[in-house]
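Both lines are given unchanged directly below:

***
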Amino acid sequence: MQWTLVIPLKPLARAKSRLSDTAGDGVRPGLALAFAQDTVTAALTAAAVRDVVVVTDDPLAGRELVALGARIVPDVPRTGLNAALAHGEGVVRAVRPETALAALNADLPALRPRELSRVLDAAAEFPRAFLPDAAGIGTTLLAAAPGHPLLPAFGPDSRRLHRASGAAELTLPHVDSVRQDVDTGDDLRAALALGVGPRTQTATARLLIPGQ
């Protein structure tokens, strides 16, 4: 099964505020862009991925991600992550109603294409499925098979919310790169330990990150 991924990305100037203990205001937009670039690059290389749609209103991010091969959909609702995902889903399925669709976080700089394909192949066994994040509280990927709505419930406690919505929880081993999103300095250190993509490596090169 081939999947279309929908990746939401807020304006870079407002992104990654929880990284303030690790990166200053002038650095965080560049980090957020680097995370998204490495995420999109890895996703487009995955065997199970047909294409990638990024929902964003950020002009710089739009230009950079289009250059990598992503399609940009403007964030028309502008009312948060789940509304952006629902909008992206609507745009995609207006053209291809029976496509397999998955929402993916934009902050997975250590993403490995083979691990992502393993997760998507496992998700294909269910009408809806999700992968919890490394912290075990949130969600990094939510998948909906053809003919089934995505019904995103990202945000605090999204693991519980997605499970309560009827989505199957995927418990695959050895897919750490798909689970390791980056919200805090500790998350960034964990992603660096896994091995991040080249843009994140460059963006973090001048940061003083204890334990790196």
